Amino acid sequence: MLLSASILSYYAKNAERFLATEVLEVDDGTARVESGPLGILFGVQPWNFPYYQLARFVAPNLMAGNVVMVKHSGSVPQCALAFEDLWRKAGAPSGLYTNLFLSYDQVNEVIDDQRVKGVALTGSSGAGKSVAARAGQNLKKSTMELGGSDPFIVLDDADVDKTLKWAMAAKMNNTGQSCVAGKRFIVDNSLADRFLTQFSDAMSGLEVGDPMDDATTLGPLSSEAALVALEEQVNTAVEAGAAVITGGKRLDRKGWFFAPTILTDIAPDNPAHRQEFFGPVALFFGAQDDDDAVRLANDSDFGLGCSIFTQDPQRGERLATRIESGMVFINHPTGTVADLPFGGIKMSGYGRELSAAGIHEFVNKKLIRVRPIDAPA
Fold first, then answer.
1. Is 84 among the catalytic positions?
2. What is the pTM of this model?
């Protein structure tokens, strides 16, 4: 909630500066670029961070002068209603923010409506393909924040004990149900055995229980369907040759719980090598050296975030320039704050949210040029 509030406050304070008219230098007369709203925008948002996802879509676009309609996840209708109620209580005019309780089949009807001028989606790559295709058919601007298979790179000079704490935070953020959760752990071979042993012990030692209980460190997955899908992914990976270091199956208890899992020996032709595991499943790879770590990190269909751990930050920065992703964090898991741009490349989508970049996605950059009437043609 605090993160969501910080995003709203950030754009309230900075939007005017971000959207200020840009004066261009020209040989004669004047030229400027004004930023104006596009109109009605349509956002399709996921369940996993139900207020934050809304805040980062809505705040910049309302401050840019647009109107927003949102199809939130069917898993969190109460959050959608509560968020809309906040705007009403704040005095926003009717229609500035509107929830649309739609089926996925009805989404296309909204995108097709000529009054809608832009489309934003946060979700799976499959959903992104469908929504982006429909927006493209209608020649409408879109942004896509999709899945990720973020590499968590540990170089040979890393402090294993300190790095392990961040590895657990990266992997178990929201029980692994996060697009920027650490998913592929790429560790220099000189540290691989030690890291894997400690990582396995830490994963196995998580406390299963009610996510509302402060003592719980392993909560359930979002739905039975999510549990079944994750179990099928793991089983397929094992059938294709992956080894289970710990976990590997659903827990025998009430609820949609999956055991904290580490898979290794994942060959390039294993389906797991190309997939996103949305849950408490980590893929582990050993790297021969820095170049091999970069190769493994880039050998992915996704390109959202990446983190690199080393006691030499400049070394980490040199590798960061070679990583194919939208974000790279040195000595910290991929994260999000209001004033840093968020987004990816490849199957992780396109466009940016948050920071100044986020407010410029759905504005018209209008050039206004004035020249003397007797200027040469």
1. no
2. 0.96
